[in-house]
Amino acid sequence: MRASIKIVVLFLLLISVSGCSTPPDPPEVGQAQNQELLLWRAGTHIFLQNEYSQYTALLKQANESFVKERAQFALFINYENITAEYGRIISFGNSLKSRLDELKQTKSDSLSQKISDYQDRVSRLKQASMLVNEGRLARKSLTQAELIFAEVSALHDKGDLLAAEQKIESIFPLIKRAESSLAPIIGRYSDEDQIRKWRNWVDSTIVESKNNQSMAIVVNKIKKTLLLYKSGRVVKSYPVELGRNGAKDKLYAGDQATPEGKYKVVKKNPNSKYHMALLINYPNDDDVKAFRIAKKNGLVPRKAGIGSLIEIHGGGDDSMTLGCVSMKNSEIEELYHMVEVGTPVTIVGAVEVDNLLSDSMSRL
After folding, report:
1. Contact 124, 175 (CB under 8 A)
2. What is the pTM of this model?
3. Is 267 helix (H, G, I), strand (E, B) or coil?
4. Whose CA is closest to 281, among 219, 345, 338?
5. How far apart are the first and last CA of the chain?
6. What are the pLDDT digits (tens) for 17-30?
7. Angle of helix 192-212 versus helix 171-190 axis, rounded to 10
8. I need a labelling partner for 212 at 20 to 30 A (CA). Which of 57, 181, 283, 363 fits?
9. Beta bridge partners of 236
10. Where are the domains of the chain?
């Protein structure tokens, strides 16, 4: 009996000495809780879902163990295992943060490269679209792409990489649409056989001018220039504008394309609706033949005619026409008085394979 009393007294004495106070929480508990918040804010639950789920499961288990241990009588609380458990979790969290940083950096670099590549393609397409009147359709898509670029860049800058990745994917269809609208034109201006034919037309025109000691006109569509030759040498160069679909070869009335071929001035009109005008003999025999073939192949509307009244006229070199070649009024006046009826007029797309249009697209 006395021994039991002594044990109780000793126990009470130990409690008195310990002050009955609960030991302080291990600092690792607060560190782990702060770490969990930081990992969540950094997007670990998005980029490393499985690993983050494993991390939170371990942390939950540690928290439960901590609460259970803390609920014991103060004298019996021992945080040694709890501290070690939280330490392992913190170490795991640190490794997750390192992996997350590497993953986000990789994604950021990849996104930056894609932005750069897409912007380069858009820039080159836009450059190509500015060379031809038909580029207006492509420019509409490219303008939409540029607006999306601004959104993607903003998302990238604030670190919202997943949203930026999703947004940039909407640019690709716009690029393809622009490429598709330009492809038929690009194909003609990159075709070596087509370029060779155009160059032969020009060469023969220059030779004719030299041999006859006469005037000749050469219109280069891609450069939008009209060169006046005298005795085989260039004496004047003028900027011009073409039909609304001027980069294409004219097939029928109403297609708003500017014809290509070897023509001649058949009439001079000093009182044209467009100041002054030089009428050329479109359609010639080659045009009629091409029209019949195109119509047979279903490339021409059933009721469409071949068209006529193609002129070099005034009205400005910055105004699209319905298929004619337009010049500044002051310059058509000068040209009008320098040429006569019968003057050769050769209209070509380009004379070089590495022309402005093919060059801008070949680097895509």
Report:
1. no
2. 0.74
3. strand
4. 345
5. 100
6. 444 577 898 999 99
7. 40
8. 283
9. 228
10. 20-103, 116-190, 193-353
